[in-house]
Amino acid sequence: MRLSIIIPAFNEERLIEHCLRSVTDALAEHSGPGVTSEIIVADNNSTDNTAHLATQAGAQVVFEPINQIGRARNAGAAVATGDWLLFLDADSTLSPGLLGDILRVMKSGNSVGCGSTLSMPGLPWWADGILRFWTQVSVLLRWAAGALLVCRRDAFCEVGGFNQDLYALEEIDLSKRLQKWGRQRNLEFIILTAHPLNTSPRKISLYSAREIAGQILRVIFNRHRTLKDKKRLSVWYDGRR
User: 2-9 and 36-43: which strand pairing?
Assistant: First the structure.
């Protein structure tokens, strides 16, 4: 069994090394017969040293010229050789405990894939409330957060990968299609809760509560138009880092 870890990255020179170090440390703790791995960084048209730092850290780097996270993830998947694909955001860290849970899902033979709950330290009360609400929705509906999504390669290919018409929430769209694919084969898509993924709360630092509330409202009340127009998705695409 082979695991491909795919990390989309746009101007992530401040965090990419920390992310990659967490991945290699987690893999080292779970080294042994039966599972091999590769690490792929999908450079999404970065203008900083992201690609160079990733190469120095030993990752395979592929280039996606169009700034869209779904395209970057698909570009990484296109060169991946694994039976399973693990998509991890560059501002997140993979713990040995979470990787162990993921490996057990892979080996069980019962699942098409999984996501994880999230941990974001230092959130203000209102952002912590949003995260708690999302956690309940994610577990109940089995929707993966974009920071981490794991799935079988054959399922990913057959459902068409990430929808490149969407500039945000493409991970929820893929979760739904993976669930449907799995139900047809008596396979489940689950959300892991024992070891939440550590991910950066930087959007809360970079954007005001008003900006984030405005973004959420645009998605809720004009979902179709907003998700297909990155100009209306400033929290994802205005380049703040």
Answer: parallel
